[in-house]
Amino acid sequence: MAKVLMVQGTMSNVGKSLVTAGLCRVFRQDGYKVAPFKSQNMALNSFITADGLEMGRAQVMQAEAAGIEPDVRMNPILLKPTNDVGSQVIVNGEIRGTMSAVDYFAYKHNLIPDIMQAFNTLAEENDIIVIEGAGSPAEVNLKDEDIVNMGMAKMAKAPVLLVGDIDRGGVFAQLIGTVNLLEDDERSMVKGLVINKFRGDKTILDPGVEILEDKSGIPVVGTLPYVYIDVEDEDSLSERLVGSAQVDMIDIAVIRLPRISNFTDLNSLEMIPGVSVRYVKTAAELGNPDMIVVPGSKNTISDLLWMRQNGLEAAVLKQAGAGKVIFGICGGFQILGETLADPSGVETSGEVRGMGLLPVDTVFLEEKTRTRVSGTFHCTDGIFGGLCGDDIQAEGYEIHMGQSTLKEGAKPLMTITDSVSGETKEDGAYCSNVFGSYVHGIFDGDGIGAVVVKALAKAKGVEMEDVATVSYKEYKERQYDILADSIRANLDMEQIYRILEEGL
Predict the structure, then answer these.
(1) DSSP state, residue 458
(2) Is 378 noted as a catalytic residue in this protein?
């Protein structure tokens, strides 16, 4: 069985996911077979595995850092919020139902067998499992039924590293307060403290570290600096979603929908020099971009109505009328169509008018489409004609509840093949300067981003012939290595290996 280490945090967004990924990378570099694990994840960024199952994007990123194929067992429970008080509950990659927060809290204890089966089978196949917690273990109102922090640590017999975020202030209070709110048996499981996101001269911090160790009785195993690395984010707390006025040579504006999902679709364009990807929430922020992207959504109809009410729909229609490129992905593709009907109440019962930029009608179905695909672009007569040809291969995944039917005036954008069944079908649509696709990751394939950026530059009348054609996969590999270098340089890995070896 694998040795186990758990990374918990003093609150959400302290960097647990990155620390977990960095440790996975270090262990892999040291020759161990390592896998990440998170018993319960709440996020709208999800992924479809090779066998057609759905899991959280953070564990996909960590699996990449570990050099292994993402496996749904790494995230047996995924909660995808549908509104402010309810979530779709996905267990081992399959939809179990939609529950209110109160109902799920009462039900979740029943999922422990699913969690432990996933964990135990992973542990049998690996040398090390690095478990990530969620939120804080000191949420005293939730501790009795905890299955993701100390509850998970107890089930897995995992020693814990507790991470605090100094960039948000009060890191000593974060760490000491969290430790003091733990039960005695839980406190004894915390074997090391980590201060994350430090900026400046570390010698100034050293006296505080001594006091922290003295008051907690737990060693500080390292202080990690604020590292600027580009890996895929877990959810809407992502810093990349924060609005920015900075505009580069090629300006891509992404509508930041209230229920935005899978916003990692634009990461591969963002890494290209000379390209800015901005997330906007108002018509005033939209400006005059070269391309507007309407991304995926967990509640497409509600997000369409939000755009209609706050003026973004009118602003996008104006830009489309001026010839600007509009690109919709998944829910965004549906929004760009003529009608969206939900006869079964999957999202919002009834039928609404879409933006009318694509001659497409969408009907929401009760069964979710989940599949990995690959494909080629059709020879469009528009700005992206350079994507045509078998030498340009798109890869990604579908994850949606709707089925869209093309009408007169719309042409399919791609031909895609299901990686499991081998079934081939048409995907998406285009009409003049408006494009849509159900494929998440559509821009990630080698060369696709460069073609898109060059086309946008040509339409703008600027020269960008030397657009970087770096493989997105190779780019991500370098980011994981940078992360591992930071872990090695700033954490006491000898002490962490001792913690791992001694266990509980």
Answers:
(1) H
(2) no
Residue 466 has pLDDT above 50, yes or no: yes
C-alpha 426/C-alpha 164 separation (Å) is 48
What the block records as the tokens of 206 is 């050293």
Model confidence, pTM: 0.84
Q: For residues 330 and 362, is the Cβ–Cβ distance under 8 A?
A: no
In Å, what is the CA distance from 7 to each residue of 63, 137, 174, 302, 407? 15, 11, 15, 36, 51
Residue 167 pLDDT > 80: yes
Residues shown for the chain: 504
Query: Which residue of the set 378, 400, 431, 440 is catalytic?
Result: 440
Average pLDDT over every residue of 168-186 = 93
DSSP state of 263: G
The catalytic residue among 330, 378, 400, 431 is: 330
Alpha-carbon distance of 467 to 483, in angstroms, equals: 26
Instruction: Tell me the mean pLDDT in the region 378-395.
Output: 86
Tell me the C-alpha distance between 277 and 292, whole Å. Answer: 10
Q: At what angle do helices 206-216 and 171-181 cross, to 10 degrees?
A: 10
Look at residue 302 and tell me whether its pLDDT is greater than 80: yes
Beta strands at 128-132 and 94-100: parallel, antiparallel or unpaired: unpaired
How high is the pLDDT of residue 243? 52
DSSP single-letter state for residue 351: E
The predicted model gives 428-457 an average pLDDT of 92
For the chain, counts of helices (H) and of strands (E): 16, 26
* Helical spans, DSSP H, in 126-277: 150-156, 171-181, 184-187, 206-216, 267-270
CA distance 406 to 389: 23
- The predicted-structure confidence for 200-253, as pLDDT tens digits, reads as follows 888 888 888 899 999 999 999 999 998 888 787 655 445 555 555 578 889 999
How crowded is the C-beta side of 95, counted as CA atoms within 13 Å? 16
Note the Cα 59 to chain centre separation in Å.
9
- Percent of the chain residues past pLDDT 90, beyond the cut: 67
330 is catalytic: yes
pLDDT in the model for residue 85: 65
Closest C-alpha among 449, 406, 404 to residue 430:
406
Cα–Cα distance for residue pair 394/414, rounded to 1 Å: 9
Angstrom distance (rounded) from CA 253 to CA 327: 10
